[in-house]
Amino acid sequence: MINNKLISNYQHGFMPNRCTTTQLIYTMEKWYKSLLEKSNTDVIYIDYKKAFDSVPIDFLLNKLYSYGIRGKIHRWIKNFLKDRTFKVKIGNDYSDEHSISSGVPQGTVIGPLLFIIYINDVVTRIGQNVSIAMFADDIKLTFSFRNESECHALQNAVNNLVDWNTIWGLNVSLDKTVIFHIGNKNPKFNYYVNNNELPKADIVKDLGVITNNKLTFEEHINHVRNISMLRSVQLLRNIKSTNPKIWGNYFKMYVLPLLEYASPVWNPSLKKSIK
C-alpha cells in the first residue's frame, strides 16, 4: 500500500518519514498564509468515539480486497481479525469469555496500518475547497475564506464526513469535536454535526502542541517551560551522583524530549517568549 502510494498524502500517522510535526507544519503553513492574506480560517477538529475498536471487520476486509490485498495475505489478516475473544481478570478470578465482533487490535504492528487503510478514502468526501489533515484517527478540516457566504463549504464537508461515517460504522464524539476560529475579524460561524452545534475553543491542544487563535504559542511555551523545570527539580532531588555524564544522560532522557517535541512548529520568535 505504501510503496504503491495508495495511502492518502494527507495521512501523517504511522507513515514513513512522517510524524505529528510534519502534520502540524502542513496545517500551520496554511493558517499563517491565511493570516498574511488577511483571510479568516475555520478549523474543525474531528474526534472519533473509540475509532480503532469500532471498525467493522467485514467492511475492513472488503476494503483490503478492493485495494488488491488478496489471496494468502487476505486470508491471514482475516484469521488475525476474526474469532478473537477476551475475558477480564480481577485478582485470581476470571470473567466469562466474550467474542470481539469489531475493531483492529491496538498494540500490534499491523493494527494501525489496517486502520489508516480503512479510513483512507474519507478524503474523497471532503471537497476541493476544504483542506484535510490526518494523524491516524485525528482529523482536521481547514477552510479559509473572506466572504461569509463561502462558509457553507466547510459545513458541507462536515456533512459529507458524517455521511461517510454512517456508511462505514464510525461515530463522531460530539463532546471532543471542536471549532477553532483564526483571524481578528473572524465572524465565528456555528457548525453542526447531525443538528448538534459544535463547541468552540480559542485554545486547542493539537497533537500535543497548545495553540491559540493568534498562533503565538505562548501557552505552549509556558507549559513546556514549567513541566521541564519541574522535571529538572525532580532529577536534582532524586539523583545523588556528581558525575556530569550521568546528569547529561538523565537530562537527555527526561527533559530534552519535552523541549524538542515539535519544536520546529512552536519555536519561539518573540523576545518575551525566548526569555
From TrEMBL:
Reverse transcriptase domain span: 1-193
SUPFAM superfamilies associated with the record: DNA/RNA polymerases
UniProt-listed Pfam families: RVT_1
Listed name of the protein: Reverse transcriptase domain-containing protein
Organism: Meloidogyne incognita
